[in-house]
């Protein structure tokens, strides 16, 4: 399936929004800590280049075949060996206990050695429309045992189902309201490839959108992207001016062969090479090496390389990263990671929702259990960090009794009425609805399972509680 959105463009600004404003509030796993800026760029360019040509419709997250999964990822724990109390956990919540339920939230925690417990740090809530497309990401951070709004991303689609606009907001804690931050708009060609993407910043003084960056894409006959040109808006000249360019070349089999980035030089009025990433595959088509070069003005100089080793099941078991020592004219080991698998479960048997690891997920064929990270000391590997994946069993056949009696609210997203399903009747239903910042909007008890929403309820995420004789049920809905 063709890429429906230019993920490079989107992810650059997503990362800026999520990490650029309050980076300390978001996770820093051992893997990320071990990455230098160079390594980050290398991996980012590689993964993003891959996604541009292989990632399906962005709205179809999580991306897996339409099957019943036997295992589902519940949490991922990252640990440091030298500092055992320096731990991080990502926990995942789904729409229901059904095998193919979509991811609805990710909560990140850090470990407290003092209290010997996990402390919540950040949360991402994901909302979908009736067609299963993502319509919103809500980012919050923990403060004094409460979740505090930080940023929000809304996704809008054309009638054909293609994303055409992304709006970014930040929370104004003083005025208790969302304020526009930026937006992306997209135009498609007749093959539904993104032809242009335009990025705007909100001018709070002039109360209008200000042009910032224009992205123009070119594709080959196979709808693979071959050129992306980024231009920045010049307010003085009222026009866009070239800034950077990216170029891709491919093997005849369609796999990416080379990626080159260039910067525009006003003096020579020409593109000047910056970085180059080259891929090498084995006879079976597996990626075994990708290498980065930097341009020194006259020639390409080696900078870094990554060598990948696979097991007999074609799972990547080792990824070794090296940096080029220009003085000694040789490669020096930088770091590596090694994977451990449970080969009883194939990739088709599991659901792994973490968007951050999607690039790596697509590389293995069986259930990933653990990733060990190694730095190098005098050329010797030192295992100083690791990540452990924790799964739960998912019933794939028959009727799940707990699901049949599960109380839940629909439709979600909602418009003007909410219905409660599987509530024991005859019985009074005690229902509360709260805004994202905790303001109580509905608090009533009735025998009908239909609750009419207030006319002035604005579009966004809301939280509810339903109280029966046994327990309190909680959840969230999205108001269209």
* Rg of Cα set: 24 Å
Helix content: under 10%
Q: Major sheet: size, sense and barrel closure? A: 20 strands, antiparallel, barrel
| Proportion of beta-strand residues | over 45%
Q: What is the helix tally?
A: 5
Low-pLDDT segments: 1-68, 354-362, 397-405
Count of the domains:
2
| Whole-number mean pLDDT | 79
Features:
2 domains; 4-stranded antiparallel β-sheet; 480 residues; Immunoglobulin-like; mainly beta; 28 strands; 55% strand
Can you describe this structure?
This protein has 480 residues and is mainly beta. It is globular. It folds into two domains: 7-393, no CATH class; 407-479, Immunoglobulin-like (Sandwich), CATH 2.60.40. The chain has helices at residues 7-21, 30-34, 37-54, 358-361, 401-404; strands spanning 71-80, 87-94, 103-112, 117-128, 134-143, 146-157, 163-172, 177-188, 194-203, 208-219, 225-234, 239-250, 256-265, 270-281, 287-295, 300-310, 316-325, 330-346, 350-351, 366-377, 380-393, 408-410, 417-421, 429-435, 440-446, 450-452, 460-467, 472-479. It has a 20-stranded antiparallel barrel. A four-stranded antiparallel β-sheet has the order 25-24-27-28, with no helix packed on it. The two termini are 28 Å apart. It is built from five helices and 28 strands. Mean pLDDT is 79; it is low at 1-68, 354-362 and 397-405.
In short:
The chain is mainly beta. Helices cover 10% and strands 55% of the residues.
């Amino acid at each position: 399936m063709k890429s429906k959105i230019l993920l490079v463009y989107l992810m650059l600004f997503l990362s800026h929004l999520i990490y650029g404003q309050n980076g300390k509030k978001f996770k820093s796993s051992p893997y990320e800590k071990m990455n230098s800026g160079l390594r980050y760029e290398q991996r980012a360019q590689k993964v993003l280049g891959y996604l541009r040509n292989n990632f399906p419709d962005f709205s179809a997250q999580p991306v897996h075949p339409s099957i019943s999964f036997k295992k589902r990822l519940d949490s991922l724990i990252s640990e440091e060996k030298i500092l055992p109390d320096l731990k991080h956990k990502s926990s995942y919540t789904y729409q229901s206990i059904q095998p193919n339920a979509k991811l609805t939230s990710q909560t990140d925690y850090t470990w407290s050695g003092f209290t010997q417990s996990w402390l919540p740090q950040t949360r991402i809530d994901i909302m979908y429309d009736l067609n299963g497309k993502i319509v919103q990401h809500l980012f919050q951070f923990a403060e004094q045992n409460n979740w505090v709004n930080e940023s929000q991303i809304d996704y809008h689609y054309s009638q054909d189902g293609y994303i055409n606009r992304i709006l970014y907001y930040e929370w104004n804690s003083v005025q208790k309201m969302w304020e526009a931050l930026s937006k992306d708009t997209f135009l498609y060609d007749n093959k539904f490839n993104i032809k242009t993407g335009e990025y705007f910043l909100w001018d709070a003084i002039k109360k209008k959108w200000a042009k910032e960056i224009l992205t123009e894409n070119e594709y080959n006959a196979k709808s693979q992207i071959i050129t992306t040109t980024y231009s920045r808006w010049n307010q003085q000249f009222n026009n866009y001016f070239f800034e950077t360019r990216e170029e891709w070349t491919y093997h005849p089999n369609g796999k990416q062969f080379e990626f080159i980035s260039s910067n525009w030089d006003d003096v020579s009025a020409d593109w000047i090479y910056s970085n180059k990433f080259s891929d090498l595959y084995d006879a079976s088509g597996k990626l075994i090496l990708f290498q980065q070069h930097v341009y020194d003005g006259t020639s390409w100089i080696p900078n870094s390389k990554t060598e990948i080793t696979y097991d007999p099941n074609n799972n990547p078991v080792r990824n070794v990263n090296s940096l080029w020592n220009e003085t000694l004219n040789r490669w020096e080991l930088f770091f590596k990671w090694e994977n451990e698998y449970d080969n009883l479960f194939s990739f088709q048997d599991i659901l792994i929702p973490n968007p951050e690891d999607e690039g790596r997920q697509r590389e293995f064929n069986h259930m990933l259990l653990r990733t060990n990270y190694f730095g190098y000391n005098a050329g010797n590997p030192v295992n100083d960090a690791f990540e452990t994946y924790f799964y739960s069993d998912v019933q794939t056949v028959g009727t799940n009794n707990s699901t049949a009696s599960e109380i839940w609210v629909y439709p979600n997203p909602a418009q003007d009425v909410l219905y409660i399903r599987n509530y024991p009747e005859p019985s009074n239903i005690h229902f509360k609805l709260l805004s994202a910042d905790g303001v109580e909007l509905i608090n009533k008890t009735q025998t009908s399972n239909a609750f009419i929403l207030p006319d002035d309820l604005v579009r966004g995420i809301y939280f509810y509680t339903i109280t029966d004789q046994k327990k309190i049920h909680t959840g969230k809905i999205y108001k269209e």
